[in-house]
Write a structure and sequence with these properties.
It is a single chain. By secondary structure, this protein is α/β, with parallel strands linked by helices. The chain is 47% helix and 14% strand. It has ten helices and seven strands. Helix 5 links the parallel strand 4 and strand 5. Helix 2 packs across helix 9 and helix 5 runs parallel beside helix 6. The longest helix is centred in the middle third of the chain and has 29 residues. It starts with a helix and ends with a helix.
Length: 266
């Protein structure tokens, strides 16, 4: 093998490696959050799985440790701001330092006509998807500032980039998160902190079941040029790019992973 090719391969492998990094993933008890926590662990990061379901994240963290990775489960309800500082403190105690990677993935969905959504329902969506994400990212960024930088990935949605029926509060919360991402990227670049938004399309998770239950699946899949719904592992490459040094010059980006659905809506 050409030594030059070997060197290029080694360089690429090193760029995508997360060895020596500490990552925190919110919403890690299921779906996209759990998948991305596993991806970061396999890339070499020590990973804190953060979510409300303590038993679930404890079991998933144990499974990662048994597979040879460094992982811990941390209790966090992003809608309860009083739980944020204790969660980050627990990460530092367990993994030895503040996280330099945050995947802000906790989120809830409400599929209901605009005229029928209640104050309590809308408040719950915004408290989790936007306010909670805001303050988790703020706490993470303060820690990253002290250690010289890091990467924050806000998991938004293509619903924040295009209108969709029955998704008024969800879409608005994700649009807000996308704009927040851009402002954060602008303000935090000088601290060595990159901030990007990962926008999944229709990914088959527990959350996706709300579309299935309402009978939207057939119409939705027809709008996707690839003619299939995404799987959580379709997000692996994009998340690893944004988390690692391979994406070191990427900040303020909004990366859609949707099988071409946004293109079809132009």
């Amino acid at each position: 093998m050409d030594d030059r090719n070997t060197g290029a391969t080694d360089s690429l492998t090193a760029a995508f490696s997360l060895r020596g990094r500490i990552a925190m993933v919110t919403g890690a008890s299921s779906g996209i959050g759990l998948r991305l926590a596993r991806v970061l662990a396999h890339a070499g990061a020590a990973v804190a799985l953060a979510a409300r379901r303590k038993d679930k994240i404890a079991a998933d963290a144990l499974a990662l440790r048994e597979a040879g990775h460094q992982a811990v489960g941390v209790a966090l309800d992003v809608a309860d701001l009083a739980t944020i500082d204790p969660a980050f403190d627990a990460v530092e105690r367990s993994l030895g330092a503040a996280p330099d990677i945050l995947i802000n993935c906790a989120g809830i969905i409400l599929t209901k006509p605009f005229l029928q959504q209640t104050y309590e329902e809308v408040a719950s969506v915004f408290d989790t998807n936007l306010r909670g994400a805001f303050f988790v990212a703020q706490r993470a960024a303060r820690g990253m500032q002290k250690i010289g930088g890091g990467s924050i990935i806000n998991v938004a949605s293509t619903a924040g980039l295009r209108p969709g029926g029955y998704l008024s509060s969800y879409g608005a919360s994700k649009a807000g998160l996308i704009h927040l991402t851009k402002v954060m990227a602008f303000e935090l670049a000088g601290h060595g902190i990159r901030v990007n938004a990962l926008c999944p399309g229709n990914i088959e998770t527990d959350m996706h079941q709300s579309f299935v239950e309402r009978g939207f699946s057939e119409a939705l899949v027809k709008r996707i040029p690839q003619r299939r719904f995404g799987q959580p592992d379709d997000l692996d490459g994009a998340a690893l790019l944004l988390a690692s040094d391979a994406g070191r010059y990427i900040t303020g980006a909004v990366l859609a992973v949707d099988g071409g659905q946004l293109v079809n809506s132009l």
